[in-house]
Design goal:
alpha/beta; FAD/NAD(P)-binding domain; Enolase-like, domain 1; 3 domains; 7-stranded mixed β-sheet; 5-stranded parallel β-sheet; 10 helices; about 30% strand; binds flavin-adenine dinucleotide; binds NADPH dihydro-nicotinamide-adenine-dinucleotide phosphate; FAD/NAD-linked_Rdtase_dimer_sf; oxidoreductase activity
Length: about 475
């Protein structure tokens, strides 16, 4: 019914939904390309994410800082941009209209959905289980951690890797499904290299590494904040109720049941548990171990925020729940694009690229989506950007610089590959993935200075068979070798 009140709606040439990296990059690109067109950014929180100090480190590797800023800065910068502080609650793709939670209706000629994702908790509606996504949830975690003596961490990806390293003054029971830590980023060899760091206090790490900065100007409000990112924990003290740092890793297990000390079944579920009654919550793993703890962190991935857009429309969703997009960032609905964590890249990928829901990819997709929207508005066509040729990611785990290139974990290669590894304990771990003599991926941990050379070798697909294991010989200056 609301969408019939067409005459009362504001119509914009371009509307972007979401004030995270993808949405802000997209709307800024559109605003500068069409300085006299009417544009709107609709977002649920008063703060937006701005990319600053952007640096192209090599052909595909990029570094930048991210600042959380009030939206007014964007409005001041672009006079053609209207900022709408509200959440979208419905979309009618046929009539090209959106409705926000404050009951207003906006029309668009072209729309880009950049509504991000939210934590995919392994169990819903349990007050002791929390996920970390935005400034609010990080602060909630910090507050509850300050009273905690023991937490249980579920999940083996980026957030879990960061938390086991950052949390102090609280025992961490880290329960993972896999044989080795960090399965989304590393193989077992790299995990072995990093394991000693689990017990090393942060301050004693030998190689402090530089990393993109993330700053928060002031507390963000709203219930759907943007995702945190690089160094989100720098400004937050992740300190438990006690001193010291202890991590216990429970390998190859999953959660079987969660119960509180008042549950009548406690003694049946965990008959040998000595501490029944002294913890607010208990977690039973399928390796027959039960731990009492103060809270449980579910760092078990994300689920794209698509709900408000689906009802009554014909979006095709990918298996991971993301809006399917083609190489022009178009969804299956006419004039609707999507970018960042909310979308799933469903074009035929370059053999050396894969999607991961990361800050860098959110920026690249937001930028590419804007260029596609602009080109289509002018009836032009555009090619897939070069950044989608090769997967590349710079980050930091356990205070080591980590660079991931191409098929860094031999993803999708089957048995048809070979690995070369060089490892110096406490200093560096270098792994190269070769397929038919060509380099197709690499993991570089530590200050290896190999990223640019390896990126070139991956991009030019040179036959490296003649070099054999010399490729990682520390006595050969590989940079000069391939210069
Ligand atoms: C703790 C943590 C650490 C991370 N660390 C890293 C890292 O080190 N490196 C890295 O590359 N990536 C990291 N990531 C991932 C990275 O932050 C995300 O991939 C990226 O920020 C996604 O950007 P986005 O713009 O797609 O979504 P988001 O940043 O989630 O932004 C979504 C926006 O949409 C708005 N929104 C949502 N629903 C609606 C609605 N219905 N109506 C209106 N607006 C809406 C939200 O308010 C928000 O502004 C981390 C993520 C987390 C949670
Ligand atoms: N430095 C960086 O680059 C960082 C990046 N991020 C990004 O932020 C986002 C959120 O991070 P995060 O939540 O860690 O997500 P990730 O996708 O990185 O990792 C999720 C982990 O949880 C596991 N998992 C999924 N479901 C269950 C379950 N039911 N029980 C037990 N384990 C489960 C997954 O295993 P499996 O893979 O087998 O399903 C995987 O190990 C990701 O996109 C991540 O890439 C976050 C922090 C740092």
């Amino acid at each position: 019914l609301y969408f019939n009140v067409m005459e009362n709606k504001n119509t914009f040439k371009f509307v972007v939904v979401g004030g995270g990296i993808a949405g802000v990059t997209c709307v800024e690109q559109l605003a500068s390309q069409f300085p006299s067109a009417d544009l709107a950014l609709i977002t649920a929180g008063p703060h937006i994410k701005a990319v600053t100090n952007f640096k192209q480190v090599s052909k595909t590797l990029e570094e930048f800082s991210v600042e959380e800023r009030p939206f007014t800065l964007l409005e001041e910068k672009y006079s053609n941009l209207t900022f709408i502080l509200s959440a979208v609650k419905a979309l009618d793709a046929k009539s090209h209209c959106l409705e926000t939670t404050d009951g207003k209706v906006y029309g668009y000629e072209k729309l880009c959905i950049c509504s991000g994702a939210r934590p995919k908790l392994f169990t819903e509606d349990n007050p002791y289980v929390l996920g970390i996504r935005d400034t609010d949830s990080a602060q909630d975690f910090q507050k509850r951690l300050s009273q905690a003596k023991r937490i249980v961490l579920i999940g083996n990806g980026g957030i879990a890797l960061e938390l086991v390293h950052e949390v102090r003054g609280c025992e961490v029971i880290w329960a993972i499904k896999d044989k080795a830590i960090g399965n989304t980023f590393f193989d077992a060899g790299a995990a072995q290299f990093l394991i000693p760091s689990l017990e090393t206090p942060k301050a004693q790490k030998p190689f402090p590494c530089k990393r993109p900065r993330y700053t928060v100007e002031e507390t963000a409000g709203g219930t759907h904040g943007s995702a945190l990112g690089p160094d989100w924990h720098e400004g937050i003290v992740l300190q438990g109720a006690e001193q010291g740092h202890r991590v216990v890793v429970e390998y190859q297990c999953e959660v079987e049941k969660i119960f509180t000390s008042t549950d009548v079944l406690v003694s049946e579920i965990a008959p040998n548990l000595e501490t029944v009654g002294s913890w607010p919550v208990y977690i039973k793993l399928n390796n027959d171990k039960t731990y009492g703890c103060d809270l449980i962190v579910s760092a078990t991935g994300v689920v794209p925020n698509t709900d408000p857009f689906l009802h009554g429309n014909d979006f095709v969703l990918a298996n991971d729940g993301g809006l399917q997009v083609d190489e022009q960032m178009r969804t299956s609905e006419l004039d609707i694009y999507a970018a960042g964590d909310v979308c799933t890249a469903c074009w035929k990928h370059s053999p050396l690229w894969q999607q991961m829901r990361l800050w860098t990819q959110a920026r690249q997709m937001g930028w590419h989506a804007a260029r596609c929207m602009a080109a289509h508005a002018l009836s032009e066509s555009i090619e897939l950007d070069f950044c989608f040729e090769l997967f590349s990611h710079i980050t930091k785990f356990f205070n080591y610089k980590v660079v991931l290139l191409g098929k860094f974990n031999a993803q999708g290669l089957g048995p048809n590959h070979e690995l070369l590894v060089r490892c110096t304990k406490g200093q560096e771990y270098v792994k190269v993935v070769l397929s038919e003599g060509r380099m197709v991926g690499a993991v570089l941990i530590g200050e290896t200075d190999l990223e640019e050379t390896f990126e070139n070798l991956i991009l030019n697909q040179m036959d490296l068979t003649p070099y054999g294991e010399d490729l990682l010989n520390p006595n050969i200056d590989i940079e000069d070798y391939f210069d």
